[in-house]
Design brief:
By secondary structure, the chain is mostly beta strands. Helices cover about 0% and strands about 45% of the residues. The chain contains no helices and seven strands. Strands 2, 3, 5, 6 and 7 form a five-stranded antiparallel beta sheet that branches. A two-stranded antiparallel sheet has the order 1-4. A hairpin with a 2-residue loop joins strand 5 (about 55-65) and strand 6. It is elongated, with a radius of gyration of 13 Å.
Amino acid sequence: MAITLTELVGVDTGNSDIQAYSLEVDDGQAGDFMAFGIPSMSLELVVPATRGLTYRLRYRAFNSVGWGEFSPVLSALVA
C-alpha cells in the first residue's frame, strides 16, 4: 500500500519549518499503533499490507518546538 501524505502541505506549523514526519500504522486487525520506518521528510511511503485488511494510520510532524499532536486516525482497506 502506498501512502502519500500530501495533506500535510500547508498545515499550520507555528511558523517553524517541519523537519520530519512520523507515521504509525496498526496491524490491520485494530491492534496497537507501531511506528513505520524512521521519521523523515519523505511524503510518500510504501507500507507492507495484506489484501482484505483495514489498516488504521496516524501521522505527526516534528519542528523546532518538538513533535506535534497525532492526526485524526485514517482508515484504509487494502483491495
